[in-house]
Specification:
The chain is an alpha/beta fold and 317 residues long. The protein has helices spanning 13-22, 34-43, 55-65, 86-89, 91-111, 149-164, 184-191, 210-223, 239-249, 260-267, 269-276, 284-290, 299-305; strands at 2-6, 26-31, 46-49, 69-72, 115-121, 133-134, 168-174, 176-178, 197-198, 204-205, 207-209, 227-231, 237-238, 257-258, 280-281. The structure holds NADP nicotinamide-adenine-dinucleotide phosphate (NAP).
Amino acid sequence: MHVFVAGATGAVGRRLVPRLLARGHRVTATTRSAAKAGELRALGADAVVLDGLDAAAVGQAVAGARPDAIVHQMTALAGQPNLRRFDDWFATTNELRTQGTQHLLAAAQATGVERFVAQSYTGWTNARTGGPVKTEDDPLDAEPAAAQRKTMAAVRFLERTVRDAPLDGIVLRYGNFYGPGASESQVELVRARKLPIIGSGAGVWSWIHLDDAAEATIAALERGTAGVYQIVDDEPAPVAQWLPYLAEVLGAKPPMRVPVWLGRLAAGEVAVRWMTESRGASNEKAKNALDWRPGFASWRDGFRNGLVDAPAPGVAS
Ligand SMILES: NC(=O)c1ccc[n+]([C@@H]2O[C@H](COP(=O)([O-])OP(=O)(O)OC[C@H]3O[C@@H](n4cnc5c(N)ncnc54)[C@H](OP(=O)(O)O)[C@@H]3O)[C@@H](O)[C@H]2O)c1
């Protein structure tokens, strides 16, 4: 298969491109940087320097490559997180999820591409009512925090647009990433005891190692049919479980605990919701339909053995 990977140098792309090549697929890989294009070529991919928000350039790049499938992994999250101004932090990512998706889909249809796989997310986007673990059929949060409304709208737009497109449109809702390139800032916070448990810590998170996210993406490309799939590990867990465990694995002191009012004052509503009300995700559909299993079935093993020095080769970030 000839796969066009838009956003080939990000957290997933760096692991996806070498794996696709190793499986005998041809890869056209995009980045905005000429230097990173050289690195992608060195791996064996055809590289294209591309701004995903430039409709004409996207159209030309896809028409020039004539791929069988497109994978949309473009986000713009490498900067400093800002939970209080979440929609500002995600502004470019939201454009990549709306306009960027439209540009790629238009190019796909113009060129006769049959399969389209797009990155989405599962976590704070889930409805904060009912049971702790959600399936693809459960509703998303109808009342996101005020700071996350635009980001939620962009997620909904991406999922709807890909699902409704007249080709095999596959949405992969990845859980919270961990692994080299995804965990460094969080590890630093935990080591410095700057990531406290807010309130009960009953918010449930689903995690996924970056290598497992890449493998699931290949499974979707090779075996997936149109639809939404949650790509998470087997053990959704409350913050009150995984955060002290992560501290222990890192040899750090246990996380502080702060009451909700103080958490809200210090970190804002988004952080409070994440720690107290989040819902996890089921991976049953992905396991059954994609014949995929996470290599790290639980974050317990993954935090211990997968935070650093992943064996897979990749492009330097
Ligand atoms: N589910 C999750 O938990 C989740 C999801 C996504 C990201 N994250 C985290 O966010 C952090 C940053 O993510 P990341 O490493 O993937 O980096 P990123 O800065 O979000 O970039 C991702 C990809 O998008 C490309 N890109 C960015 N803007 C673009 C544009 N205008 N046009 C075309 N391509 C564009 C980047 O390519 P170039 O910069 O080379 O052009 C890169 O290949 C990581 O810690 C990651 O784990 C977490």
